[in-house]
Every structure is written in structure tokens, then in C-alpha cells.
Amino acid sequence: MARDGAGPLRKLWAVALKEMRQTARDSLSLTMLLGVPAFMLLLYGYALNRDVRHVPMAVQDRDMTAASRDLVASFVNSTYFDRVLDLPAGADFERVTERRLAKAILVIPERFGADLAAGRTARVQMIMDGTDATTATTVLSYAASIVAETNVDIERRSLLRAGAAPPAVLRYEPRVWYNPELRSSNFLVPGLMGFILMLTAVISTALSVVREKERGTMEQLRVTALRPGQLILGKVVPFLCISLLASAIILVAAWLLFGIEVRGPFLDLFVVTLIYLVGALGYGLLVSSFSDSQAMAFQVGSVTSMLPAIFLSGFIFPIRSMPAALQGITYAVPARYYLIVLRGIIQKGAGLGPYWEQMLFLIAYALVVFGVAWIRLARDEARG
Would you report the helix, strand and coil content of the chain in percent, each value rounded to 5? Predict the structure, then answer.
């Protein structure tokens, strides 16, 4: 009985070992599985940074008083703006923005200081390059905040000079949990992990199976004593191990490059990643069952796994801001649920308990997709 039980395991191990050796000899596949995730994390982690700082700002100070200099200093000291150009009166603002000499122009008119000293409303103008609407909106909110703080300081100084006590004001003390510096990399890097793992796991598995079809080695495997389940698991297990190793590489790279630490339990992170990868590998098998060539498998696998993981998972674009029809489609995207759990573990230090609904979907997705792929491939093996 022991020998009978060990036989299937030996056959499965033989297929897995064969697949590992083949992958090790294929330097391109090995690089894609281990090197590409780290490279993509490095590339997209910096390229997708949505933090807006050091905006090049031109200044046209027509007043040239202490009050105008204090206002300019408030903008520069905030670190959101860099004073790169001083413009004389009558300067061509369109030329400055067209040639990208500055993205913002701060205009301080004459009698700015005199109006403040007399208690009259003093006006300033911010001209913004709006070709990038998202950046322009963020920069204008920074400018409004700086002007509001400067205005409060001016009012207090005026009251103190007049000998009056400053009025009671509402003191606003915001506190941001889990990401106090509001760094976009803390939000984007976990999303990159879900996107990269889905893409590499699907493509690598699909190409592995289809490669056997193209080379004719699948026919050789069919005439052996291997059962369809042993062949399928033997093909999947090596890529599951490699994908888990790629996950560890991504986490180490995120810690070294972006200072992102895992605050929650590593065991919970391993469990949810394992379930997510099983679903991704199962989808790769499903793609291979429909594909007759590696080119077709690559195209179908990359498009159907990459686009939903980027656009419909909440990775970049908030799901709540999408049209209702697209929001409905996102419920079928596993990356949506994985990112919720992943960000909870990495950023909030939570375990799997608060995310049981997301875990149930990931488990159901893995079982359904892997089961359908298993049935299709087993049927093909039986026909062969």
C-alpha cells in the first residue's frame, strides 16, 4: 500500500522536476519569472508616483515689499514649489508655459503690501498649466492651503499690532492613519504586486503547456503512465514555487527601495498570496486549453489578465468613480479582492479576519477557474 501511494507522488514529482529543469535551462523564462517582477516594481513604483512636489514656479512680484517676499517665501518653504524664474512686468506668460520654463506662475500686483497694511483685501493670482488636469488640481489645492495659512498669520499680526486679542479660531488638526505622509508609493506598490503576480503567473503557465503542444512532447507524455491530474499538477507546482519566490523578491525590493514594511502577519500574507496564485495559475491553464500556439497564449493571457488587473482592480483608478456598469464588472476581477487584503496586511497590520468576504471570493475563484481548466485539459488528454 505504501508503494502504491508513493507511486503517484513519484510521477508527479518527476513531471515537476522535469519542468524545473526545463525552466532553469530556459534563461528567458527564468528571467521573466524572477527578474521581470523586480524590474517592473522598480519601473512602475517610481514612474507611477502621484506625489506632487517641487513644482517649478515663476514669480512676478510687482510690489517688491516685505509682505510680498514673505508670501513668496511661504510658497518656497512648503517644498511644494521651487522658485525657478523671476518675471518682470509685462512678461509673456504664454511663452513661459509653452516652453515649459515653469508650470505655475505666481503674480503679486502693485500695492499688495499697502493693501494689507491698510486692512484692505489684497489679491494675488496663480496661473497654472492645466494640460495635466490631475497635477494642476493638486497644485492649486496646495496653493490655496498656503494662501489660507498666510492669511491667518497676517490677521493675527494685525490684531496684535492694534492691541486687540486675537479672536478664537477653530484649530484643525488632521491625523492620517497607516500612511501619515500620504506617500503614493505606499498605495501603489501593493497594487503593483497584485498586477505583476497575476501577469507573470498566467503567462508562464500558459506558455509552458502550449510549448509542449508545439514541440510535440505533449504526445510523448500522453503515452506514459501519467494520469491527467498528475501531469497538470506537475506542470503547475514548479511555477507556484517560483511565483512565491517572486513574491518574496517583490516584498524585499519594496522594503529596500520604498521603505514599505509588512506590518501584518507574514503567515496571513502567505496564505492569501498562495490562494491568489492558485487562481492565476489555474487561469493560465485555462488559457492554454484554448490556445494552439505560444503567440496566441501570450496575447490572450496578457490582455485578459493585465488590463483588468490595472484598470478594474482599484490599482490606479478608484472603483467608486467608475460607471455603474464597470463597477459591476470589477466584482469578477480577483485582483480587486487581493489588493484589499494585501493593503490591509501590509499597511494596516491586519490579519485575514476582517477580510473574510474577499477571501471567500478568492477561494471560489481559484476553485472554479482551476476546476474548469482541469476538466478541459483532462478531456484533451483523454482524447489524445
Answer: 70, 5, 25
Range of 215-219, 278-282, 377-381 with top mean pLDDT: 278-282
CA distance 126 to 144: 10
User: What is the edge-to-edge ordering of all strands in the sheet holding 55-61?
Assistant: 81-86, 55-61, 104-108, 125-128
Going by C-alpha positions, the residue among 172, 170, 152, 154 that lies closest to residue 162 is 154
Residue 189, classed as helix, strand or coil, is: helix
The better pLDDT of the pair 286, 380 is held by: 286
CA 345-246-9 angle, to 5 degrees, is 105
Q: Alpha-carbon distance 170 to 216, whole Å?
A: 76
Kindly state the cell numbers that stand for 125: 493670482
The DSSP symbol for 48 reads T
- What are the sequence ranges of the domains in the chain? 2-48+184-383, 55-161
Question: What is 55-161's CATH number?
Answer: 3.40.1710.10
Tallying the residues shown for the chain, one arrives at 384
Alpha carbon distance 365, 361 (integer Å): 6
Residues 6+ apart with CB under 8 A from 230: 8, 11, 12, 15
Of 275, 323, 283, 289, which Cα lies nearest the Cα of 306?
283
Contact 101, 85 (CB under 8 A): yes
Number of other CB atoms surrounding residue 14 within 10 Å: 14
List the grid coordinates of 156.
493675527
pLDDT per position as a tens digit, 127-179? 988 877 777 888 888 888 888 888 777 777 766 666 665 555 545 566 667 87
pTM of the complete model: 0.74
